[in-house]
Design brief:
- The structure holds 2 protein chains of 2 kinds.
- Chain A is built from 8 helices and 2 strands; from the N terminus they run ααααααβααβ.
- Chain A is globular.
- The longest helix of chain A is centred in the last third of the chain and has 28 residues.
- Chain A is mainly alpha-helical.
- Chain A has a two-stranded antiparallel ribbon with strand order 1-2.
- Chain B is largely without helices or strands.
- Helices cover 0% and strands 0% of the residues of chain B.
- Chain B has no helix or strand.
- The chains are: A mainly alpha, B little secondary structure.
- Chains A and B meet through α1, α3 and α8 of A and loops of B.
C-alpha cells in the first residue's frame, strides 16, 4: 500500500458515495446513465469473486464489500426506487458494443485460462469502457449537473492515481500488471477530455457543465 | 506477460 494507491481507493469511494447521495438526497437520477451503473455493478461482481477464494487483507475485503453494496444500491435507486426520474430516452448507448468485444478480449488475453481469471480480466477491460454510456448521455443532452461532474472527476482521478501507484510499485517492488496497466491507461484517456471541460467550465464557471 | 495472482488491488 502506498499513498497513490490509498488516494486512488479513497477517490473511487468518494465518487461512488457522491453519486449515491446525489440520487438519494434529490430523489432523482436525472442525467445519470443507469447503463453505466449496471456495467460498474457487473465490473465489481466479476472482479470480486475472489472474495470466496483468497483473503488479501481486512482492508481489501471491506472495500470490496462496500463497492459491491454501493454499486447495487445505486442500480436499485435508478431502476426501482426513483425509476420515474430515469431518463431512458437519452441513455441510449448500445452496451452490447462494449460487452461483446470486452468478453472476446478477456478470453484471448488473460493471465490464466480459468473462469475466475477470465472474469477478472473481463472486469478490468469492462471498467475501462463502462463510463461510455454516461459520457454518451452527457454529449447527447449537452449538459451535466455540477454534482454529476464531481462524480466523474473523482472516478477519473481514481484510475489516474492508480497509474502513479503502478509506476511506484514497478520501481519499488518490480510489480507490473500488464493487463491492468494497459486498461488503466485507456480508461484514464477516456476521462482526459472530460477533465479539461471540468476545469475550464465547472471549476472556473458555475453550476452546470454545458457543451458547446 | 507478468503474472500477478492473486490480485491484491481493488
Amino acid at each position: 500500500m502506498n499513498i497513490f494507491r490509498l488516494a486512488g481507493d479513497v477517490s473511487h469511494l468518494v465518487a461512488i458515495i457522491i453519486l449515491f447521495l446525489k440520487i438519494w438526497k434529490s430523489k432523482s437520477c436525472a442525467g445519470i446513465s443507469g447503463k453505466s451503473q449496471v456495467l460498474f455493478a457487473l465490473v465489481f461482481t466479476s472482479r470480486y469473486l475472489d472474495l470466496f477464494t483468497v483473503f488479501i487483507s481486512a482492508y481489501n475485503t471491506i472495500m470490496k464489500l462496500v463497492f459491491l453494496v454501493l454499486s447495487y444500491a445505486t442500480v436499485y435507486l435508478i431502476y426501482m426506487r426513483f425509476r420515474g426520474s430515469y431518463d431512458s430516452e437519452n441513455d441510449s448507448f448500445r452496451v452490447e458494443f462494449l460487452l461483446v468485444p470486452v468478453t472476446g478480449l478477456a478470453f484471448l488475453e488473460n493471465y490464466a485460462f480459468t473462469p475466475l481469471e477470465i472474469l477478472w480480466t473481463f472486469s478490468i477491460f469492462l471498467e475501462a469502457v463502462a463510463i461510455m454510456p454516461q459520457l454518451f448521455m452527457i454529449t447527447k443532452t449537452g449538459e451535466a449537473e455540477s454534482i454529476t461532474t464531481h462524480y466523474l472527476f473523482f472516478l477519473g482521478l481514481y484510475r489516474a492515481l492508480y497509474l502513479a501507484n503502478w509506476v511506484w510499485r514497478y520501481h519499488t517492488e518490480g510489480f507490473f500488471d500488464q493487463i491492468a496497466v494497459v486498461s488503466g491507461v485507456v480508461q484514464t484517456i477516456f476521462y482526459c477530455d472530460f477533465f479539461y471541460l471540468y476545469v475550464t467550465r465547472v471549476l472556473r464557471g458555475s453550476g452546470k457543465m454545458s457543451l458547446p | 506477460h507478468a503474472l500477478k495472482i492473486p490480485h491484491d488491488e481493488l
